[in-house]
Each structure stands twice: as structure tokens, then as C-alpha cells.
Amino acid sequence: MGSEGTFGIITEVTVRLYPQPEAVSAAVCPFPEVAGAVDTVIRTIQRGVPIARAERLDALTVAAVNRYSQTGLKEQPMLFLEFHGTPANIAKRFPNNILNDLRAHVPADSRHDWPHSNRW
After folding, report:
1. Per-residue pLDDT reduced to its tens digit, 71-94
2. Buried b vs exposed e over 30-68: b needs ≥16 C-beta within 10 Å?
3. Residue 57 and residue 65 in contact, taking contact as beta carbons nearer than 8 Å
4. Which pTM value belongs to this model?
């Protein structure tokens, strides 16, 4: 029911199925400030690195994630990045140089090949 009392019925739906990528890699990148995370995404896109998924969290959101999921993430601005493709292609595209340029604090174990259910 719409706001004007109208009623609509869906008569056709198109669904597209996409195959699962051969490899998926993710990075958890903490930053001292939110601006650094935003700049990282902008520069990554400008340099043509295809990102499958990017999520920016502020310190309050990280605290909420820690409480809900019982994780031990450091409560500061954070960027989650995900890349899809072949293992060799992901290794080549991983934007370590961009993260280093912006002085992001990327832990050595920030790159993960997690099961899909443990991300997002």
C-alpha cells in the first residue's frame, strides 16, 4: 500500500546469478583518523585497483562490532577491503603501496583468506 492508497503488484522479477570468485582476499586496515580511510579508498579507485567491497567503520562502530561479535578489534577508524579474482591477480592488485603512502597502520596479518561467512 502506497502513501496515496495505491497498490502495486510485482509481476516479473529478473535474477542474475554470478559465479563465486576463484579467490577472495580481505584486508583490515586501522587508521588514526577517518580521513585516512576515505583517502585510501579514493586513491585505490583512482589507481584502477578493482575493489569488490569496501566498508569504513568509525571508532564507535568498531566498539559495537566488538561487543556484538566478541572480537578484539582496536577501537579506532577502520577500513575493510575485499578483492576477488585469481590468487596471482589478487596478490598483484593488493594496494600495499597506497596503504604505506598514507601511513595506514596495517598489521602483518591484515590480509586474510577467510571463509566467506567470517567477513561482513
Report:
1. 888 899 988 888 887 878 777 766
2. bbeebebbebbbebbeeeebeeeeeebbeeeebeeeeee
3. yes
4. 0.65
